[in-house]
Amino acid sequence: MNALSQWTEPAQTTRRGSPADPSTEVSVERRTISRRNFLNLAVGAGAGAALAACGSSGPSGGPGGGAAGGGATYWFLTGQPGEAIRTNTVKRFNDANSGTQIKATTFQNDAYKTKIKSALGAGQAPTIIWGWGGGGLKSYVEAGQVEDLTSWFGENAAVKDRLFPSSFGAATIDGKIYAMPAETVQPIVLYYDKRAFDKVKVQPPQSWGDIMDLVPKFNAAGIAPFSLGGQSRWTNMMWLEFLFDRIGGSEVFQAVFDGEKDAWSNPKAIDALTKMQELIKANGFIKGFSSITADSNADQALLYTGKAAMMLHGAWTYGGMKADGGDFVSGGNLGYMNFPPVDGGTGDVSDTVGNPGQYLSISSKATAEEKEVAKKFFSTAVLDDAEVTEWINSGAVPIVKGSESKLAGSADADFLKFIYDTSANAKVFAQSWDQALSPTAAEKLLDNIAKLFQLSITPQQYATNMNQVIGQ
Amino acid sequence: MTTLAPPVVQRDPATPTTGGRGGKVAWMALPALVMFIGFGVIPLVGVLVLSFTSWDGISTEIRPAGFDSWRAVLTDPGLPNTLWVTFLVMALSWAVQTPLSLLIGVFLAGHQRYREFLAVLFFIPLLLSSAAIAITYKALLDPNFGLGAGLGIPFLVQDWLGRPGLAMGVIIFVVSWQYIPFHSLIYQGGVRQIPRSMYEAAELDGAGRVRQFFSITLPQLKYTIITSSTLMVVGSLTFFDLIFVLTEGGPGDATRVLALSMYKLGFQANLMGPASGIAVILVLVGLALALLLQRLGGRDQTESQLEGG
Questions:
Q1: Residue A288 is nearest to which of B59, B143, B267, comparing CB atoms?
Q2: ipTM of this predicted structure
């Protein structure tokens, strides 16, 4: 009970602070969780406590009785713990619906991103398409490849209402919903190894200046200050997302997203890019970072094996470090915090960035029967109670209202509360840049970020290169 | 690819019943022709057409776009670097592979039993898929968890794939490691075709081993070298899987070859038009190089008894 009341507290804080902050109007629709949206969530959460108690069966019914003998296909990502949880959900659905089976196929993250596109283009897409929403989903929508689910959500309000309202931003293109938000909310978190900080006798950074001060101390102790899987490129991007925000606020990238001319040349942006290169030049990242990939989880391994002291990474890596890191997580050695402020920056320190959810779309090329199966899957199996529990046990916050009461009982209660608070209290929860932008602009972005981290281009050259693809 | 025994090549025009036999032979070429047209010519035409369109690879709508894609490809500031990297991979992998596979091929041409045993061992890398090789090398070369860190050998603890020069070196090394066995096999076959009488005559004249190698083996292998070089040079244009898994074209764009650029444009940036443009460039460069190499070997190839076809 005590823990439960703790959970309602941040919600009230957000409610108090919410009235008419102009910045919350920025891009709420498309890609951010604003305070206003989280207000909805908070209201839902208050009432949801009661709902969670009785609504254990989840939204019942769903459309149609289910066409017998049909089947659907579903492609999703590998990588634990998510892979097992997704597989279990499919299995439960198949066990409960002997007539309508879903056949699942799994892919590695980066491979999936291209595989799904070529499958869509070739008319070979699965019925259910796992995705990140945002710019990628928009490209599917523009190609007419995914179902408009707006009316379905209208008819099945119970399905929609039990999910975080903020999660629908990246599923909504031009006012229509094209995907079912699923799984978990995943802000990017600054992780640190408490053992390393004890060894060097320093405190976790409270500002960018602290970070720059810590770098030589850790290097002198033979510990890399930061782990980074730089070959994956989007890993580098997370750094820029926070630096841009902390230095100039969310409006700096918003201008890029809105297609403003020369938005990357904003002095705040140049300042962020310059600071980024200063950290790289100061050997802030582990040696060889540009040949490490995130898909292999080697970046996480560097943190839990004590080779690196800190790591900026998605909330989803907590589960991986818990599973692979021995007693690193269970022994209380893992610290975590939101990205610290940059001295003199104007950004809100509560802002965060990451994935407001994961997204399931239905292929418009699927047969009516397959679509029915998919919709039934959405309404009866996706984020059902068992799946919610599994996500929480893996150390993640599912996007289901009322699930926060379950968080406190979890073995990872502290981390889950941190993730929940970070998401709920964020003034702006921005979607990852590469997911928010169109695939064309995202590829150029990642390419130039890799070069920036390689120190082969200057901040000015980066801005010039990127200004060319603004609005594409 | 395999070296042909001379009589087979030369018998054909000499046969008296040309009409009947010729018809039969043409009919036998049909399956190959169908495959070539179906999987070679038609896609090629498709790519050429696509290079004049605008398509994101996802929608069913392909819009004609004139020379837009070509303009985008040819004015891309990254193009000179990509071409240079492609050329570098081609030249270096040729320069490393040719002498090594030639020497190994000559060595393996001997009929001693231990050499035949070694030939089997040398052949193993060729049996592995490029992706598997790349993943293995990536793990071995990892600066934090790889071979160097594991065995405590400081020299091996380098940022192998994170520095432009080193990454290029690693790629050349792995490519060579993978393909030298294949080219050795070609040379082994070539060397075994050289009439033994030549060596016997040379020995009578008092030529030593080295002299025999440079005066008999090397000139007699002329067409084998051209065949092997053509395969290496044209093949290097299409190195994709290995580089993609090892470095993804990185660090920065230090190992971004044309084939990788094509993939990234087409399948990651959703720009199928410009990607098709690069594909056409690849085909043209490949054809030009193959023609050039054939010319280098003299026009009338049938004169050779030792051509590797």
A1: B143
A2: 0.74
